[in-house]
Amino acid sequence: MALAELASRLNCAEYKNWVKAGHSLLLLRAALQRFAGEQVQAFHRQLVARSSARLSPSGLRCSGRCTPRGKQAYMPHGKADICGPDKCDASALLNLFNFCDHFSNIDQKKVREVIKCRNELMHSSDMKVSSSWLKEFGNHVQNLLTEFQHIPEAQMARTRIEKLLSSDWAVHVPGGDQLDGLEGEMNRSQISEIEAELIKERLHEIRLLVEEQAMMSEEDLNRIQIVKDFLNGNHDLQRSLQAEMQNLEDLVQKLDGQKQSMKETQEVNDEETDEDCHLEKRKRTI
DSSP H helical segments within the chain, as ranges? Predict the structure, then answer.
């Protein structure tokens, strides 16, 4: 059953493009995490050295045991509690490169182009992108990776992403569960895990957006319903995302309750206002 559902999903070219792009971002993140971690530590050491230099006249020195939390200032909304680059998703890592001056030697235009693509991917209402969009996305990712030619993981990622975006990802239900096009690198379990991670990130994006607005718009409800309908038709993914979906539905119910309470309060206030106006009118008449 799970393999048949996977085959059905990947039979949709635009959904397959969406997953390929998301997987490419996961590969990009993995390739740059070590570099980002080392650079953050170097940045922290510089800050410690500057602090020690300023304090040295009074005989005070930093022990060097403080944690490099300054990078949290560069995290996007909802990422401020991330403890290090190894815990970052692609969005947080790219924003670190974009906003932290320590990474100013990286071409910021290339970083912003990939951020834009990532946001378009996660905000896609139906989790689908065209082949022309995927091609442009691939060019932007490869352009960014040229900024890291001195990093072996980045160069390996360039090759893997190029192969990934040009692969077919055909699934043959009879006689095995291998995906064609990646030379046996991935099986159905691995690609389902990638799908689940991407959809989990999408649900997180919707939740953050709703919490930030402190209200539920019709567009938000449509986004949630699309994901809900998708998961109802794909039980293998539904099982692994039950907790995230339930959290989002709980938020919807909470905001609906608040909206109803505000509506009832407004109705009471309107009634009191009408009554006050009526009494005032009677007084003037008398």
Answer: 2-10, 13-55, 90-99, 108-122, 131-145, 152-166, 188-213, 218-232, 235-240, 242-285
Encode pLDDT of 126-185 as tens digits. 899 999 999 999 999 999 999 999 999 999 999 999 999 998 876 655 555 555 554 456
The encoded tokens of residue 140 equal 């932007």
- The structural domains of the chain, with segments of one domain joined by +, span 1-182, 187-286
Residues 6 or more apart from 195 whose CB is under 8 A from it? 9, 19, 237
Q: Which two tokens stand for residue 20?
A: 């390929």
This model's pTM is above 0.90 = no
d(CA 74, CA 265): 40
Q: Quick check: 79 pLDDT over 80?
A: no
Residues 77 and 28 sit within 8 Å (Cβ to Cβ): no
> What whole-number distance in Å separates Cα of residue 211 and Cα of residue 245?
15
The separation between the first and the last C-alpha atoms of the chain, rounded to the nearest angstrom, is 80
pLDDT in tens, 257-284: 777 777 777 767 766 676 666 666 666 6
**CA distances for 200 relative to 60, 83, 206, 246, angstroms:** 47, 20, 10, 12
User: Do 14 and 130 form a contact (C-beta atoms < 8 A)?
Assistant: yes
